[in-house]
Amino acid sequence: MMTSVDADLIRVLADPLRLQIVTLLARETLCTTHLVEETGARQTNLSNHLRVLREAGFVDTEPCGRFTYYRLRPDVVAQLAGQFAELAETARTAADNKRACP
Description:
Layout: H1 7-14, H2 16-27, E1 30-31, H3 32-39, H4 43-55, E2 59-64, E3 67-72, H5 74-93
Antiparallel strand pairs: 1-3, 2-3
Helix pairs in contact: 2-4
């Protein structure tokens, strides 16, 4: 069990559409209309995924007239990446550790 990596954040990114949204938002701040065009997803489905990303802390919103823009929070992505880097380092240093069978 991975205790050093935030499992909730991994579950959020496990959905292919949410991962695509995060990838798009890494490049630029986009509104829902842009995301519908880029992903081909229905607006209601996309809104649900954006809500999950917002609640998990991956994205911030910025109202702009009748549109809402979404911006990726790089600090959250960096935190998750750091947890994976620590996990990888632990695996490197423990590569020769082998527990004997009873």
